[in-house]
Design goal:
By secondary structure, the chain is an alpha/beta fold. Helix content is 45%, strand content 10%.
Length: 1490
């Protein structure tokens, strides 16, 4: 297998290079935003830049990046564009800038929206240029740029400005481009269309000739573009050299065709045009397809286009076609061909009279039609309206190969999409894993196109939706698998032995050499399938490794996925492995196959089952695993072996590799998606169109739902009647009781419900009345019935005063339909979610709610808040593995709940025993739940009914208060409640208390009745299933767990009515969709009533590791974000309570309207200044340290030593002032910097009690959803802004701090970035040097913004700060030392100076890491230390991976403790893997044996 060429990484220019560039000089003169006096607009500037900078460099990305970054488009090109100055260079410059914005993934159309006047003219110029002759004014490369621009336009239909221009190209009138016979055929098929067609003709006649000509050009644009492409395609020779410009043009054109076919609005009329042009036939017969190197990507794109042109959908109606409908269409085509043959072509009689199944394969069609002449074939095609009629006297101009392929490809039997999918192996093989067009490396630059599906706004059908997600999910996991294989196999160092075999010179924790491999079972196929039902094999390995690694291998569980690998190295023993060169040829990798563990075999060869029993101890080092192979893959491999004489793959494996369990669930998720595609996906009717991206985006909003609920019980949502009134501004609130004393929560509210289809009233008076009525809310306070006399009987209450937008979100969540809540940082998303859950639970006790989140951490936060509300904990259940992290004593997992039920049952039966004793009833009523039920019926109920009959109001006599207490039968039982039980103030009050007591008793027996099942079901598994199915009302899981376990849940018959999703903007599109389908439909309908999504699309999207899938395929778009883009109504929470108002201003510009809650101004912690620091936030400029800014020891593993040291110095300074270390977190935008900072902290602070460790040192992305009082942020980059250009990352970075934010960065780089301007203009308004107040202790009384009474010191650079902190630290040590001396009452003269230093050092050596001595807290002006740190970055080897905290030190010299040298270079780059066995090893040493 040929190794793919390694793609090059695009190196971003440095700031100094940027400043030296011709472009930058021009920018400073004409359009840079920070320049006050700009030169006037000059068209020649644009011409010069285009010719000298863009064309001359052959559209080099580096040049275009510079131009786009300098705001060329916003501040110069579009601002000055008009038809008068429009030229080729002008058009091309704008297209290049827009394309670059799409490549960088930043908003592209904002500039055009602000000044839309000239856009129509500009767009028409683009269309004209796209059709120009290739050897004319526009080169092929330039036309490729135009094609890409057009593709972006077609994919931006949600932008009104773009849609208005594009629509004219893709509406019904474009059928003018069809040949007349075909047009007639299509109009005959759908009579309604003929009406529209006649209307179009009439309208055309009314137009003036010029407008008509213009309209005709637009309508024929795509037809003409296809013809132009075909002429370019035909100019590609078979074997002579071809310019890559031609190849790229062809690839981009097919990409455009795929995108047009994959969207219903563009496909609807275009698909017929495409079919009529026979583009696919031309492509498949072209020379480019047969050129192996150049045509590889083109062929892959062509297969995608073929798939979409034949997609199972009705183009006009947009309905998905069933298997039967597809078969009918196929039969109609064949029979119409047979009829034509019978009537007009006697030589085809055999064909005409055969049955369809006999003649619809490619082979039989070629056999039947092959012998015919070209002219006859043309006549057959023209009879089917595929080609224009051939005049009798003329010969056809088409060659025979084309005509034959046209007829055969149109009439051959197609394998259905679902069959193709079911025959597809789920594990990737070596062919896919290392194919750059399908799984690009991390170097994907965004330049070329790829053979990948894209996730945009709309999908053709649910099948298309699932299929695109299936393919992308599969490829994204393939990319991660590739990284793991490359890492493990290269660690094993496979070399060729002297005798030609394989010898392993290294070892890997995650991989082992295979000793023996045998296939032990190939089961028979199911009826109608040709692949075996299962294939099992035994893999034997020798675990001669350390105990903890051996345990990991023996701990492989059922369903864990492993990979079987064959390597045949050609390199001799001792060859060094080079990570920069292609991987496959170095290790000689030949095959990769996936497998799934069934279990390990015991001594007798039986599979050891997972279970509560302890595992048997096996002797020796040899272990055998039974594995399942992929039956589809096995069948393909065996067919290949038998038919083509290829070698048997399954006799060659010599390495087995496992993966980390957390990252290894891809197969289960893929199986889930495949199962979904094989079943009828029943999505609720009110959601179906919105999920596909069509129809009215607000159709699922509660106000438009037919089953809107008029009266809702808001339970404890409102704290008072005033709170309720302020929560509905603009509404008229009518309370049903007038007495203010009775106007207390809880409240029931009746809303005016308008049916969505109500007719408008004609008379004006009526309208006023209607609006008045529509604004009136009827509020009814109600009293929660007494639940019993014990304090714990009192319901838990909500204490949060919700804002009116939060109340709107809660109201929407309680109503049926789709609710989307956008929650900016600190706006109480979780509180809203919990209140919605609680209100649904109380309003609809019979309904069940499913909670889905992205992370276990979010699920834990939700659960901790749910428990503080009035929800019975027996109704809560948590599925998945995160429940261990819950910060409560209670266990909400399945088995935790089973144990709770069993324990609760015993408690309640004890209560029954006490009740029985108090009533003096003999026997054992508390033996089981069943006996307790009889006891309640015959003993308790009878006494209660008797009591009620005595005390109830009899006729007209006034009731006696004393009777309530006198006749009460349960006095003795309630003796342990607070006394007296009855207050004796009024009959009604005492009667309510008596009924409360009875409710308390009744609840005991109700619960026991529910728990009775656990007496009948004996195993823990059955009991847990019962809880899941019947008992739990609120079930929570992560989205990954839902995807993994869907099959089991559906099989169990799991049911739910509502879904609430937290962190919805961080969940992958497909993982958001699967939870909608965790239950079987009822009578063909989904029982889902509500779907509440809470998230923030302005923060970071789901994590996609591969840049190509993230950017090119838009895989990082969550369903939440897509709904927002489509225009689904959202409730935007608009008041934050997390951060100081000044900090909030750094990110609130990104939201519609984000203000502050009152406490942000009022509470002392927000109004007090940060001690020792002049500002509450500051941007601190960090210049190169010793000539070095950012460095990159590994790809994308960026570090910046100057910033890292500065950040740690500020952290130490704050801790020395008295700030608690756990209130400070250090964040950075790159993994490399995170590891560097951790190492410096290990070295400088260690376990020093005077300093401590920060709460967290992590990346911005990892810290999303968390917060801390003080954040120190390092932005690392000094050459290019990098991924902080994504405004979502900036928003997360700016919004993590509550009280103080200190940012370390190269200011000159970031302040020029257009997207970051709103935040950086505020940051740069303050001084760019750190201002500190060293004499001000923590905490301070100074108010925020006040001038300090202490002296302010300005720190100019990092070495100065490091020096300052060192001196401050030494001063502190000395004062502490003198203090100790005074305590010991020793005269100072008795202590010699050297002893003093010695005692300091003795004091400072603590625990494992040793506190910093003078060597440990170096004055960083001393070059030696810095050189040591910098040198270490380049010397560390990939084997020396992740340093663990606490590894450095333990009594070694300061040089040895530097963890920096162990980690920095490779610490956790894209291929991060923990150090094998936790220690460093010699490069060639074998694993340590036991």
């Amino acid at each position: 297998m040929a190794a793919p060429a390694q793609p090059k990484k695009i190196v971003a220019p440095t700031v100094s290079q940027i400043n030296a560039e011709f472009v930058t000089q021009l920018a400073c003169k004409y359009w840079a935003p920070h320049i006050k006096k700009k030169s006037p607009f000059d068209i020649k500037v644009i011409e010069d830049i285009y010719e000298k900078e863009i064309v001359k460099s052959r559209f080099a990305i580096r040049k275009i990046m510079l131009l786009e970054f300098s705001q060329y488009l916003e501040n110069y090109l579009w601002m000055n564009y008009s038809p008068e100055v429009s030229s080729k260079a002008y058009l091309m410059s704008i297209c290049c800038m827009v394309n670059e914005k799409f490549r960088e993934n930043v908003p592209a159309w904002e500039t055009f929206k602000k000044k839309p006047d000239h856009f129509p003219f500009f767009f028409k110029c683009i269309l004209k240029a796209a059709l120009a002759e290739t050897d004319g004014e526009f080169s092929l490369h330039e036309q490729t740029v135009l094609l890409l621009f057009l593709d972006h336009c077609f994919n931006s239909l949600e932008v009104d400005l773009i849609r208005s221009q594009v629509q004219q190209l893709i509406s019904l009138p474009m059928w003018m481009g069809l040949q007349p016979a075909r047009l007639e055929l299509e109009l005959k098929k759908t009579p309604k269309l003929r009406k529209f067609w006649n209307l179009i003709k009439k309208n055309d006649e009314k137009m003036d000739p010029e407008a008509r000509e213009q309209a005709y050009q637009e309508r024929r644009f795509l037809s003409q573009l296809i013809q132009k492409f075909i002429s370019v395609l035909k100019s590609v020779p078979l074997s002579e050299p071809v310019t890559m410009d031609k190849v790229h043009y062809c690839e981009r054109f097919i990409e455009l065709m795929i995108d047009l076919e994959a969207l219903l609005p563009t496909r609807r009329w275009f698909n017929t045009i495409l079919d009529d042009s026979h583009l696919l036939v031309h492509c498949y017969l072209s020379n480019l397809v047969h050129r192996e190197e150049d045509g590889h990507l083109f062929s892959q794109l062509l297969d995608m286009l073929k798939f979409y042109t034949g997609f199972e959908i009705n183009d006009q109606t947009g309905n998905a076609l069933t298997e039967n409908e597809m078969t009918t269409i196929h039969y109609d085509r064949i029979t119409s061909l047979q009829r034509a043959a019978f009537a007009h072509f006697p030589e085809l009689y055999d064909f005409a009279l055969s049955n369809v199944a006999e003649v619809d394969t490619r082979g039989s069609l070629v056999k039947l039609f092959g012998p015919l002449s070209s002219n006859t074939l043309h006549q057959v095609a023209s009879y089917l309206c595929l080609l224009p009629t051939l005049p009798k006297t003329e010969d056809t101009t088409f060659d025979k190969e084309f005509l034959l392929e046209l007829l055969v490809s149109r009439h051959e039997r197609r394998i259905s999409q679902i069959q193709q999918l079911n025959q597809m192996p789920l594990y990737p093989t070596e062919k896919i894993i290392w194919d750059e067009n399908i799984v690009p490396t991390e170097y994907y630059s965004g330049e070329g196109c790829l053979a990948l599906p894209k996730l945009n706004l709309q999908f053709l059908t649910l099948h298309d939706y699932l299929l695109r997600n299936f393919n992308l999910f599969r490829l994204e996991s393939t990319y991660e698998i590739r990284q793991d294989i490359e890492d493990s196999v290269s660690r094993m160092k496979p070399w060729q032995s002297e005798y030609g075999g394989v010898v392993f010179g290294g070892w890997a924790r995650m991989a082992q050499p295979i000793v023996a491999f045998t296939v032990v079972e190939v089961a028979k196929p199911n009826i109608g399938e040709n692949w075996p039902t299962r294939v099992r094999a035994d893999v034997t390995i020798n675990l001669n490794v350390r105990d903890h690694i051996k345990d990991e291998w023996e701990g492989l569980r059922k369903h864990d996925v492993c990979f079987l690998i064959t390597v045949r190295p050609t390199k001799p023993y001792g060859t060094k492995f080079d990570r920069r060169r292609p991987f496959i040829e170095q290790v000689g990798l030949v095959y990769v196959r996936g497998c799934e563990i069934q279990g390990m075999l015991d001594d007798k060869g039986r599979v050891i089952e997972d279970g509560p029993e302890p595992r048997p101890n096996l002797r020796g080092e040899s272990r055998t695993f039974r594995v399942f192979l992929d039956p589809n893959q096995y069948q393909q491999d065996m067919t290949n072996t038998i038919q083509n004489g290829a070698e048997d793959v399954y006799e060659t494996f010599n390495i087995i590799m496992r993966r980390k369990p957390k990252e290894n669930n891809f197969k289960a998720v893929l199986e889930t998606i495949r199962n979904l595609m094989n079943t009828d996906c029943v999505v609720p009717a009110w959601l179906h169109d919105i999920i596909l991206g069509y129809g009215d985006p607000s159709s699922a909003h509660y106000s438009k739902m037919p089953n809107q609920i008029a009266t809702l019980d808001f339970n404890d949502t409102f704290l008072s009647i005033e709170h309720l009134k302020t929560s509905f501004p603009g509404h008229n609130v009518k309370v049903t009781v007038d007495d203010p004393a009775l106007q207390i929560p809880p409240f029931r509210i009746t809303f005016p419900v308008r049916s969505g289809k109500g007719k408008k009233r004609k008379d004006v008076d009526g309208e006023d009345e209607d609006t008045e009525e529509a604004k009136t809310l009827i509020v009814e306070p109600h009293v929660i019935p007494n639940r019993g006399p014990y304090p714990y009987n009192q319901p838990k209450r909500n204490t949060i005063q919700f804002t009116h937008t939060q109340i709107e979100a809660i109201r929407a969540g309680m109503q049926p339909g789709l609710t989307m809540v956008v929650g900016p940082p600190g706006t109480g998303k979780t509180d809203v979610a919990v209140q919605i859950i609680s209100n649904i639970y109380h309003n609809f006790p019979e309904q069940r709610t499913l909670i889905v989140t992205h992370s276990n951490q979010a699920l834990n936060q939700l659960f901790e808040k749910i428990m503080a509300l009035d929800i019975d904990e027996r109704h809560l259940l948590r599925l998945g593995h995160g429940e261990e992290e819950l910060e409560t004593e209670k266990d909400f997992s399945r088995y935790g709940r089973v144990n709770y039920v069993l324990a609760r049952r015993i408690e309640l039966l004890e209560e029954v025993k006490r009740l029985q004793k108090s009533l003096g009833v003999p026997g054992d009523a508390s033996y089981t739940c069943e006996t307790a039920g009889y006891f309640f019926l015959y003993q308790v109920m009878s006494r209660w009914e008797e009591y009620i009959s005595k005390v109830k109001n009899k006729g007209n006599t006034s009731p006696d208060i004393t009777e309530v207490s006198t006749f009460f039968p349960f006095h003795e039982y309630f003796a342990n409640a607070p006394q007296p039980i009855f207050k004796g103030r009024s009959y009604e009050e005492d009667m309510e208390i008596a009924e409360g007591c009875f409710r308390h008793i009744k609840k005991i027996f109700t619960q026991l009745e529910e728990f009775r099942a656990s007496e009948l079901l004996r195993s823990g598994l059955d009991r847990s299933k019962y809880l899941l199915m019947k008992e739990a009302k609120i079930i929570a899981m992560t989205c990954t767990h839902a995807a993994l376990k869907r099959h089991d849940l559906v099989k169990l018959g799991f049911k739910y009515d509502n879904i609430l999703m937290e962190e919805a903007a961080q969940i992958l599109e497909i993982e958001t969709f699967i939870p909608l389908l965790l239950q079987n439909p009822q009578d063909g309908f989904s029982r889902l009533k509500r779907w509440i999504m809470i998230g923030d699309h302005h923060q970071l999207p789901p994590v996609i590791k591969n840049m190509a899938f993230q950017k090119y395929s838009n895989m990082e778009q969550s369903l939440f974000t897509r709904f927002v883009r489509i225009g689904v109504p959202t409730v935007d929470l608009d008041a934050q309570g997390r951060a100081r108002a000044s900090l909030c201003n750094l990110y609130n510009w990104r939201y519609k309207k984000l203000g502050n809650l009152p406490h942000v101004q009022l509470l002392p912690e927000f109004s007090t200044a940060n001690a020792g620091l002049l500002y509450d936030f500051q941007l601190i400029n960090v210049e190169d340290f010793q000539g070095v800014g950012e460095s990159e020891p590994n790809p994308y593993f960026y570090q910046n030593l100057g910033e890292a040291e500065y950040v740690v110095a500020l952290f130490m300074y704050m801790c020395l002032l008295g700030y608690p270390a756990d209130k400070i977190s250090i964040l950075t935008t790159y993994n490399g910097q995170k590891h560097l900072i951790r190492d410096i902290i290990n070295r400088r602070c260690g376990s020093n009690p005077l300093i401590g460790r920060p709460n967290k040192v992590t990346t911005v992305d990892r810290f999303q959803g968390q917060q801390n009082d003080y954040i120190l942020l390092s932005l690392v980059r000094t050459r290019a802004v990098g991924h902080l250009r994504d405004v979502r990352r900036l928003v997360v970075a700016m919004s993590r701090a509550r009280l103080g934010l200190y940012i370390f960065a190269r200011v000159s780089l970031f302040q020029n970035c257009f997207e970051l301007t709103p935040a950086f203009s505020q940051l740069t308004a303050r001084p760019l040097h750190l201002h500190i107040i060293p004499t001000e202790p923590f905490p301070t009384c100074r108010k925020n913004g006040e001038r300090p009474s202490h002296e302010v010191q300005v720190i100019k650079n990092m070495p100065q700060m490091a020096n300052f902190v060192y001196n401050m630290y030494m001063h502190l040590i000395q004062t502490t030392h003198h203090y100790h001396q005074t305590l010991l009452q020793l005269p100072p003269a008795m202590v010699e100076e050297n002893e003093e230093v010695q005692s300091q050092e003795t004091e400072m050596e603590t625990e494992e890491e040793g506190m910093p001595t003078q060597a440990d807290i170096p004055c960083l002006t001393d070059a030696s230390v810095s050189h040591e740190l910098l040198a270490s970055q380049t010397e560390a080897t990939p084997g020396e991976m992740e340093a663990t905290p606490g590894r450095a030190g333990t009594g070694s010299s300061p040089e040895a403790t530097s963890a920096v040298s162990e980690v920095t270079a490779a610490a956790a780059g894209p291929k991060a893997v923990p150090t094998e066995a936790g220690t460093q090893q010699d490069a060639t040493s074998a694993p340590e044996t036991k």
